[in-house]
Design a protein that fits this description.
20 helices, alpha+beta, two-stranded parallel sheet, about 525 residues
Length: about 525
């Protein structure tokens, strides 16, 4: 059997394309050409003949026969896409966030917003949606072990397009263990209320919350998970004068993170005094599974440039939801001056669910911050005080309750308890309840301030230790053996190494620009932190 015949049998035979329309699998021949080529394919115009019926494949550098099969599959789908335009389907383009002309003012040319190398089967997949589609076709029909879990969203597209049987948990057992769909009661979109701490949080923060079955059970909060897109700023908002500039013009990378809801609750409700407002998504079981497939894929193979006003936690979340919906029910995310969380919620509420009702419905049970509860309690306490002042004929017993000093407030409560001991009035219970909520909020704030002060003290100690360490370094770093400088870089990490003097950095940074502990191809080793 000749090499071209072998390749044709590997690529098209053995029921490889069961369920695919006959026009895709019939009438093709595959020709093996000499010379290694990346992914087994040459340039765009050297993959097939003028009729797109004869496919040209090449061996790869490693010379594995399976590479020829994958190359033939990619060439077949690349050629057929010219007629069927599968790669132009919005559902496909959403996987790696392909943008068209002038989709954003800061990036007007066509491009894939996904910057993660893991999102592509081969470097050529970055060239166009068509190449992205063709290379992923090879990964779907002839996947490596890693590819079975890396592109579930893309695999779903192939299964839907060609009416193939598909079970994500069977293709990737890790997905089944991670998703735990049988224990998912609902999926919510939650909004952490706006705050003026940083410009990035002035409009709020939008994220997914997975509500477990039996939400009222004792382990509900522990089992609940959250997923959100965040800008990887490395805490630059506190000390980087270019923070705002970078945030507006895409200087940070956005990625999705998974955390427990307790961690999210602690961050927004406790640490930042922000309420969390909830909207439940009305998804079918199939839509929910597709959403989890997309989240699973994004967590492992998606990163993009972050823009405060155009490509942010809200716009990326809406794109994710749209990936689980039919094209005619996609969420419209308006925004003349920017796409923010509130306009995203508008789009989710006005979008239609499978039964014609709203896609997102407000959940009345808001996770209120201590500060929010305290503000509401302060209003109730003022009303209770006014009622009691009228009854007692004086406001003296309440003055110290509003003091800044905890000790003065404690004295005020003790004195007030004597005054109100025999007063039978509903306003007393209202005052006590409101005061407890106010003091709880003040106590939480004081605890947070102490924790922050302790953390800053530890940071100051680390900086002092770093200064002493630098002072003790040899005067001539080039006299230190290379393996020792590499070990130093690995031990101290990037942040510390960037603080060292030029004499140290000249040794750590090699002449070709590579950093000790970083592979020449750009892959990070253990010395790089993420």
């Amino acid at each position: 059997m000749s090499p071209p015949t072998i390749v044709a049998a590997l690529a098209i035979g053995a029921g490889l394309f069961d369920g695919v329309p006959p026009t895709v699998s019939a009438g093709w021949s595959v020709v093996l050409r000499p010379g290694p080529e990346p992914f087994g394919l040459a340039g765009d115009d050297a993959i097939f003949d003028a009729e797109r019926r004869e496919l040209y494949v090449h061996p790869t550098a490693r010379g594995h026969p399976e590479d020829l099969r994958r190359a033939a599959i990619a060439a077949l789908f690349y050629a057929q896409d010219a007629e069927y335009a599968w790669s132009e389907d919005p559902r496909w383009r959403a996987n790696n966030a392909w943008r068209g002309f002038f989709s954003t003012a800061l990036a007007p040319l066509p491009h894939a917003a996904n910057r993660a190398r893991e999102g592509y089967v081969a470097p050529r997949g970055r060239d166009s949606p068509r190449w992205d589609f063709a290379t992923h076709a090879a990964a779907f029909f002839a996947p490596t072990r890693k590819e079975r879990c890396r592109g579930l969203s893309q695999a779903r597209f192939f299964a839907d397009t060609f009416a193939l049987a598909y079970d994500p948990a069977e293709r990737c057992p890790e997905f089944g263990r991670w998703a735990r769909l049988d224990r998912v009661g609902a999926v919510e979109v939650a909004l952490a209320a706006p705050t003026t701490t940083t410009i990035g949080s002035m409009f709020g923060h939008l994220f997914f919350r997975v509500v477990p079955v039996g939400e009222d059970g004792p382990h509900a909060l522990v089992e609940s998970r959250t997923f959100s897109f965040v800008a990887d700023t490395h805490f630059a908002s506190r000390d980087d004068p270019l923070y705002v500039f970078k945030g507006i013009f895409g200087g940070y990378r956005a990625r999705m993170v998974e955390t427990t809801f307790l961690e999210t609750y602690r961050l927004y409700v406790v640490d930042e005094d922000r309420d969390i407002v909830r909207f439940r998504l009305r998804l079918t079981e199939d839509e929910r599974e597709r959403l989890f497939e997309r989240v699973f894929t994004v967590l492992r193979a998606f990163a993009t440039d972050y823009y405060f006003f155009g490509q942010n936690c809200a716009s990326l979340l809406v794109e994710l939801v749209n990936g689980a919906l039919l094209p005619d029910r996609r969420v419209h995310h308006p925004g003349a001056l920017g796409k923010g969380p509130t306009t995203a919620l508008d789009g989710l509420v006005f979008a239609r669910a499978h039964d014609g009702g709203p896609l997102a419905v407000r959940v009345e049970d808001t996770f209120a911050s201590f500060l929010g509860v305290a503000r509401e309690a302060a209003v109730r306490r003022r009303r209770a005080e006014a009622a009691l002042e009228e009854r007692l004929g004086t406001d003296a017993p309440f003055t110290r309750l509003h003091a800044a000093s905890p000790s003065l407030r404690a004295e005020g409560y003790r004195a007030l308890s004597e005054v109100l001991r025999d007063v039978d009035d509903p306003a007393v219970a209202e005052l006590v309840d409101a005061s407890v909520r106010i003091e709880t909020a003040l106590s939480a704030r004081d605890n947070r301030d102490r924790e922050e002060a302790d953390l800053e003290a530890r940071r100051a100690g680390q900086r002092a230790l770093l200064r002493r360490l630098i002072a003790r370094l040899p005067a001539r770093m080039d006299a230190v053996a290379p393996e020792h400088t590499e070990a130093l870089a690995r031990a101290l990490g990037d942040d510390v190494m960037s603080s060292l003097s030029d004499r140290c950095r000249r040794t750590i940074f090699q002449p070709d620009g590579d950093v000790a502990g970083v592979a020449n191809d750009g892959r990070p080793t253990t010395s790089q932190r993420h």
